[in-house]
Amino acid sequence: MAWIYLGIAAAFEVTFALSMKYSEGFTRPVPTVVTIIAVIGGITFLTLAMKTLPVSVAYPIWTAVGALGTVALGAALLGESLSLLKVASVAAIAVGVAGLKVSTL
């Protein structure tokens, strides 16, 4: 169940990052409220995941999956560029996350 909680926490993390961008400096009410809810949701589910998972695994995976999702959706929704260096960097993050997952088996 901890891995499911961690996945939900990561989805909230991506939502948080994107809604913060859409809030335009917290000047738009709806994206601002979504940002606040996403922060609370992300921390809540991360805390639930860490009841079982070690912090040295859960927190880095949470941040990494959040970063990967934000890069992908930033390109898809916001038209941000995906340079070769950015894609290689995201791939390095993905390899690190896989290594953390394997270390818990």
From TrEMBL:
Keywords: Cell membrane, Membrane, Transmembrane, Transmembrane helix, Transport. Pfam families: Multi_Drug_Res. It is a multi-pass membrane protein. SUPFAM superfamilies: Multidrug resistance efflux transporter EmrE (SSF103481). It is found in: Cell membrane. InterPro entries: EmrE-like (IPR037185), Small_drug/metabolite_transptr (IPR000390), Small_multidrug_res (IPR045324). This is Guanidinium exporter. It comes from Albidovulum sediminis.
